[in-house]
Amino acid sequence: MSSSAEPPPSPGALPTKPVEEIDRVAIRFAGDSGDGMQLTGTKFTEATALAGNDLSTFPDYPAEIRAPAGTLAGVSGFQIHFASEDIYTPADQPDVLVAFNPAALRANAKDVPPGAMIILNIDAFTSKAMARAGYEQDPLPKLRDRYRVVEIPITSLNRAALQGLALSQREVDRSKNFFALGLMYWLYNRPVESTERWLASRFKGDLLEANLRTLKSGHAFGETTELFPASYLVPRAKIDAGVYRNITGNTALAWGIVAASVQMDRPVFLGAYPITPASDVLHEVARHRNFGVKTFQAEDEIAAVSAAIGASFAGHLAVATTSGPGFVLKQEALGLAVMTELPLVVVDIQRAGPSTGSPTKVEQGDLLLALYGRHSQTPVPVLAPDSPGDCFHVMLEAFRMSVRYMTPVIVLSDGYLANSAEPWKIPDVSALPRTEIRFETDPEGFQPYRRDPETLARPWAIPGTPGLEHRIGGLTKENVTGNVAYNPANHEEMVRLRAAKVAGIARDLPPIEVDGPDRGGVLVVGWGGTRGGIRAAVEDLREAGHTLSSIHLRHLNPFPANLGDVLRRFEHVVVPELNEGQLSLLLRAEYLIPSHSINKVSGQPFKISEIRAGLEPILGAR
Amino acid sequence: MAAPARPATRKDYVTDQDVRWCPGCGDYSVLANVQRVMPELGHPRENVVFVSGIGCSSRFPYYMNTYGFHTIHGRAPSFATGIKASRPELSVWVVTGDGDGLSIGGNHLLHTVRRNLDLQILLFNNRVYGLTKGQYSPTSNLGMRTKSSPMGAIDHPVDPISFALGSGATFVARTIDVDAQHMQEILRRAHDHKGTAFVEILQNCPVFNDGEFEELENRKSRTDTALILEHGQPLVYGGPGSRRGISFRGGVPSIVELGDHEDPEERGVPIHDEHYEMTAYAFSLASLQRPDFPLPVGVFRSVEKACYEDLLQQQVDDAREKLGAGDLRALLHSGDTWTVES
Ligand code: SF4
Predict the structure, then answer these.
(1) Structural domain that includes position A590
(2) How many domains in chain A?
(3) Is residue A380 part of a domain?
(4) CB A292 within 8 A of CB A267
């Protein structure tokens, strides 16, 4: 697992300590939500990406902006897993825990395997703080038996490093996370330059000086202290050639929206109401008005989607972004978009519910809502990205589909994809699909509901086009003319036409490809953001000698045309999902096959071990 | 279907759909007046969009030969917002009612009005739910007996004019279904106003609330029951022998009996001014309600404020000026990137 290797160049003094090479490591930063853990994690992630590792991150923070300091409720964590080989998840357990206070230790120690390293800011372990975290006695003696505990007076070292600057004690202490960051940069031989550049763009004067100094002090401390006999190096991963960047699901999603506008040569209108964890998409898109995008922060979820539908009626690419509770509120308007057959993309970044639930936690609980959450027969295509970077491509696909078929399209991301980061190979813009939008312009024989014989899409005839003045609305339409109609046979025909239109999208979908043998004993079926965990579990089991296959669904409605055939070629179909069995229900209903479920609804993503534990009895029983 | 080469007439705005309001409904005359005014407004027919919610009045777009969108209950202002914000060159009209606009859609009405998009919002107020067959509405009088309030409504009504003023409306007016000339004038004024023009139209529902505005619709009684607002004219109503004015002395309205030739200003009756920046005066006017006072009709307020769609477009233009037109490749490569060699 370890061997000696040349350390990469690092700033400051030449390293004199030995460097051990390792394949992978998972680090968790944990502290008060005011301690800057998410920022620390993000900066470490950027530096790790630049060091060329494959990586996966998991930010986990409380819904409260400032929960009471020093309490378990206020603990914020950020885990990063990086490796010299492909990895798919942020790892089940951290190899290193950096805990800034007793509450962070108490909330996280149970996840740390025995023998692993725990780095503590020992200054924070006062008896008062330990009591506040719920420790009845000093936990450290016991801890030292079980783990490799490294106790560092981070607060006081940082204060010493920043002496002489015109800053308040509070400001000085607020920068202590960068001391730890500098130390971790040393310990794992990460480049510090990207963080220094970021600091310089963010701060001025003494604050900039303080942050740079504390970062460097942390780094130098690692080199000089006797607490760390060696540092570690995770060599570059062997990944596809190309230009890479780090990306979170929400950024990729926002850029996918901007990209759709470019690739389809139409301005985008985004309607949104602030909601966790979807707000960042609104924030990011709003920064790019120079692309001609118009963002509208509405008074509520209903107005957000309604305005988007209005913009679509007027000929813009329209999108509404939200999360569970907001998605529920959009269902009536979605019904109107189905009835009026207008293009629209609605993104639901699923979170744990019901009701307000746990806004910052992940769940895949909205699948049935996306498919069936409207009154009557109201089919809508549903897509789900399977990684942070995939959010970009799914958005492009959703817009293309919505325009080609004149239908609203739902995209189901989730709170895990939204905030976790991965290295992303930047796509070649010239190779991205382009779509030319053709509005109806010919008044000769124009009928608002005359359908394209292939796609069954109606024409998109927008205001401003002479001779095409027409009225649409939520009342039952007469086929072809679109006039209000009361005839029962026509009503039924229109219901069936809309259903056939959406079902027909399956023709455009690539057939499902099976990873592993294409028939046999066990097929694992996943969808959406759980792909990394499922893939890692399947590979682990194969390494342990089991034979199993897997597929991952990106199209939830309609399903790919060959899905039924694929499912029937296996004895056991196993569906891991972060809900109580929603895809499983659909597969059983649609294909009349038995399926096993592996379910989790704790608000946390799957651990690899959990999926493995779910699969092992089925594999073993064969 | 091609656009007419000759000057447009009322007929160009009539669709081939059967109008399905009850006989005698006030909506007919509103439709006729809107169709009559349309050709004068200077928009090619294809640039006009009518947007409605749900209710009797919301059938309106089906009868207008323009672009039209009959949407969902209460949300018409939001759909109109998306249309206008994305295509500012369109002339966008919202047709709503007291239930649609002030009950289920009150929130959207508030926020759309405050954003001041250049829309015309026509609120048909018949003080009852018509389409669902006669329940009391948010503008119904206290005590109104309906199927859903057999012992009388116990909700205090909302006044549409005060609601619009409170939302920051830059143009607020009231007119009456049967007064064609007045309504056409108000429609023209609403159209010419740059910003959200909110118009309450008192509308008779002969089926469920017949005669609600009888004293205002009747030409004879109107003289004594309506205060016709005219910019630059004193707040005076009534005929010869019953001439009266409104004064707001001491901050509360009162009626001033006037001789036929008496100068109202000398008696403390103010001259109507639509352009007060502060809303206090318009609120005072809106507080005049029957039966204690005459009901004001006409333009309460007309002031200038920036429109949402213009500010939005300005941000797009400014961003382009500052950052250049969007470059997708540059966006995807922004920030830290690294190259993996093959
Ligand atoms: S119910 Fe009343 S408002 Fe509705 S159409 Fe009939 S008369 Fe008009």
Answers:
(1) 520-621
(2) 3
(3) yes
(4) yes
